[in-house]
Structure prediction request, 505 residues.
Amino acid sequence: MTSKLIPVDEFDYVVFGGTGDLARRKLIPSLFHRCVDGQILGNSRIVGVSRAAMSGEDFRQFASDALDRSIVGNNAKTSDQTSGADDEEYQSRKQEFLKRLHYIQVDVLSDAGWPQLAQLLGNEDRLRAYYLAVGPSLFGAIAERLHSNGLIREHSRLVIEKPIGHDLVSARELNQTVGRYFDENQIYRIDHYLGKETVQNLMALRFANALYEPLWNSAHIDHVQITVAESIGVEGRGGYYDKSGAIRDMVQNHLLQLLCLVAMEPPASNDADSVRDEKLKVLRSLEPITASNVEQLTVRGQYGSGAIHGQPVVGYLDEIEGGESSTESFVAIKAEIANWRWAGVPFYLRTGKRLAEQVSEISIQFKPAPHNIFPEGVAQLKANRLVIRLQPDEGVKQWIMIKDPGPGGMRLRHIALDMSFAEEFEARSIDAYERLLLDVIRGNATLFMRRDEVEAAWKWIDPIISGWEENNQKIHKYTAGTWGPTASIALIERNHRTWHEDVDN
Ligand code: BG6
Prediction:
């Protein structure tokens, strides 16, 4: 079963940092797949921009290698079943795609290259997205030069990614800087978690079904867990990561966005501002965590050496330069939302690197049945749970009690109504960037963060970080390949709850 594909208007995608890691791993392969699937038509162009001295031909070769690596690396299949780098159909589609690629060498900090870029883009006010796949310190300089070279028109859009600041003050500054040249409705702030298939399914589950909404509150839900566990380490990004830590790298954006989608009120419609208004209200309702309660409500951890799936791995300090750091690679937080719907329902968040498995999921734990009519010994009643699995094995599981099939009396069992998307649908699993890149062209900002959301998230995060600093809060060591420090288990078990690691019961 494949979904309906709607072609988009002709556009120019101008990728600053066009020869960088993000372009190679995500942007070029994503645009290729959208092209193969027939969504990118006519004279749409992709323009790579960077400081590197290379010709258009060199850039096409770079893109071609990027595609081969991505196709082979992921063993990905396009919707039309092209299967690998040596596949004839794949090769011919790749050649078609590469014709759309152009390259301009630009030094974003000087005047060099801008006239050539302007000339290539031409005078027409065509749909144009400027994707800044570069460090945030360059956002201002690029926006300013796009402006002074007359490259920002009514139909121009700007795409930026985290880190959008490292605290509230710097996020405001950055937003103000780009806001000088682009209107808010032209700015698309990517959080790639919002482009993940199951994250959107959460919206469908909540707002396309009448079943859950009456139960979606403190009367019926005991607590919520959001886990984003990674088995990878810092992967050569130690320089950036060590200045950020798990709280800035993952919680401020991805985990809080997931929390918002679980907790928000039903928006009036699915349009961008209705959804973002509701998410903002959640962020503003988060109970503050400050120096006075941060030790009870948060746990920081850092991995030592260990083994992942039987393979030995080094500890965090051996992965970063200098070998000394008090940056957390793991964080667990007990968050609460002070509003009528959620008062008294904890939201347990945890994320970390070098954990036992790569798994991201949202687990909604319902309250137990109020009274057990079954005789003792038949079964212990277990409360219902809804698990939304983002990765791997995208899917939704609703845990319920049933009668154990067969004769022999009434025995009960806890089982999952299991909808594994890979089994249910044949379509290729779409990378979040594929969806988000074309949403920019369509002008659909629903899955992008508005300025006030980003700032509200920092407003909640900043006091946690300063609380840690003020209290000199302990950083717990954990062995790579485990589920994090034991203190994070204590954080939830203090309230007689457990992390859902074993999803089979
Ligand atoms: C990024 C973080 O935003 O998300 C990385 O900077 C992290 O540290 C990554 O590894 C996780 O994304 P995904 O899609 O692999 O879960």
Remarks:
- The first strand starts at residue 11 and ends at 16.
- The longest helix spans residues 238-263.
